[in-house]
Amino acid sequence: MHEVSLVQDLFDQTDAAIHPHAASAVREVTVRIGALAGVDDVLFRTAFEGCKRERGYDAATLTILLEGAEWACESCGAAVVSTAGPLRCATCDGVARLRAGDALILQRLELEVPHV
Ligand SMILES: [Zn+2]
After folding, report:
1. Region 92-115: what's the mean pLDDT?
2. CA 66 – ligand 1 centroid, Å
3. What is the pTM of this model?
């Protein structure tokens, strides 16, 4: 299941982001999953719960933000509503580009660190 390797990648990113803090300090991991990212959020959560102990993230809870696909005009930047057929800008007829919704993004980490 490809969500397991995504979760391992997420923990790799988290390891790097929290350095020099320990994984056990992480209380919450928030990710954004795009509608077109090809990631099943239920499987992702299952994989997260299954892998977190071996990676030292026992104390971490997972928050998933689901992001819809967003398109924008390549020429003028106007938002383009997704419909059937080729996507064109209603303002200038420019070609639409996907600007959100195709990625899995590590959004936020919440750590509890001892006061020094
Ligand atoms: Zn346009």
Report:
1. 92
2. 27
3. 0.84
**Residues in the chain, overall count:** 116
Domains of the chain and CATH, by start: 2-69+100-111 (3.30.2320.50)
99: CA distance to ligand 1 center in Å? 14
Q: Give the Å distance between the CA of 38 and the centre of ligand 1.
A: 28
Residue 77's DSSP bridge partners are: none
Which segments of 1-116 are extended strands (E)?
26-34, 61-67, 70-73, 79-80, 96-100, 104-111
Q: How far apart are CA 102 and CA 94, in angstroms?
A: 21
- Cα(84)–Cα(60) distance, integer angstroms: 41
Q: Residue 70 carries which DSSP code? A: E
Instruction: Enter the tokens of residue 25.
Output: 């300090």
CA–CA distance, 45 with 54 (Å, rounded to integer): 15
pLDDT for 1? 64
Query: How far, in Å, from the CA of 86 to the mean position of ligand 1?
Result: 14
